[in-house]
Specification:
single chain; alpha/beta; TIM Barrel; 2 domains; 5-stranded parallel sheet; disordered C terminus
Length: 300
């Protein structure tokens, strides 16, 4: 199987301009590892003319200069992926010695490099079969670097295996909500967290893939979801904006998938619920990218 082609900076700019027909979007530049692109600052600058560019990284390739360059280019935010507060457990899971230290260093560098108050840095955790006890230590780790904490459950669709799925599906939502009340830097929407038990027990219905969010791969192919990228419905460069919207809606019709409860789904769908939208208003209207009093309780 050959290597998939990469979009050029010019293509990113043309694609971002076309997407702007629908308004300003949150655009997650993910991988793989986005920092493998040496021209990532130029991509961020191109996308940032119309949208809010965001990256998720393992942190390995972050340097002081790169972090500053990305935020100067208009990066809205960065998430650093860490699943264990124990360095040895994180390194073992990633299969690379020093992965934890590099990730924590990335938290520090991105936190220091922010140029504007609205630029955000998150520690992103995936709930696995063996790391529920790591949630609170990771929240505290994020607080040390004046950054936010977010969490999402592992999805078997990612590698078509349930091996790492958290199976004890009762009480997780309450536990996470209790921690969110305790720590001001726990950013995940309470409505999103409250549905963790349901997601782990069989899934949350009424997925809005193709309506509220969608995926674009390295060739410009558009699918209703990142896990449906093998079934594209349109192409960013070959199809006009009206055709893309129509085909996304058609692709979303009859979607009954309940496999994931990713942030890109659950956080967005929480805004469709009045309570969830209300709970997000402090972040949407008042957030300045940096939690100010990280260890004080938050009541919503």
């Amino acid at each position: 199987m050959g290597v998939m082609p990469e979009q050029t900076v010019e293509q990113f700019e043309a694609g971002a301009r076309k997407l702007a027909r629908w308004g300003t979007l949150l655009v997650s530049l993910a991988g793989g590892e986005p920092l493998l692109r040496m021209d990532l600052p130029e991509i961020v600058r191109a996308v940032g003319r119309w949208h809010f560019p965001f990256i998720t990284t393992n942190g390995w390739r972050v340097t002081p200069d790169l972090a500053e360059e990305l935020f100067e280019a208009g990066l809205w935010g960065a998430s650093i992926s860490i699943d264990y507060a124990d360095p040895d457990r994180h390194d073992q899971a990633r299969g690379v010695k020093g992965a934890f230290d590099r990730a924590v260093r990335a938290l520090e560098l991105f936190s220091r490099a922010r140029r504007y108050e609205w630029q955000r840095v998150n520690l992103m955790m995936v709930l696995l079969d063996d790391n529920l006890d790591q949630v609170e230590p990771l929240i505290q780790l994020a607080a040390q670097y004046n950054t936010y904490f977010m969490i999402q459950p592992y999805c078997p669709e990612k590698i078509h295996s349930s091996r790492y799925r958290y199976e004890k599906n009762t009480g997780v939502g309450k536990y996470l909500l209790d921690l969110r009340r305790k720590y001001a830097n726990f950013l995940s929407n309470p409505t999103f967290l409250s549905r963790f038990d349901k997601a782990l027990a069989g899934g949350v219905p009424d997925c809005q893939a193709g309506r509220a969010f969608f995926n674009i791969d390295s060739t410009g192919d558009i699918a209703i979801c990142v896990e449906r990228r093998d079934k594209p419905v349109a192409n960013l460069y070959r199809d006009d904006a009206t055709t893309i919207v129509y085909r996304l809606r058609e692709g979303a019709r009859g979607n009954t998938c309940q496999a994931c409860w990713y942030n890109c789904r659950g956080e967005v769908e929480s805004l469709y619920v009045p309570k969830g939208l209300l709970q997000s208003l402090p972040t949407l209207l008042l957030d300045r990218g940096r939690p100010k009093k990280l260890l004080e309780p938050v009541r919503l």
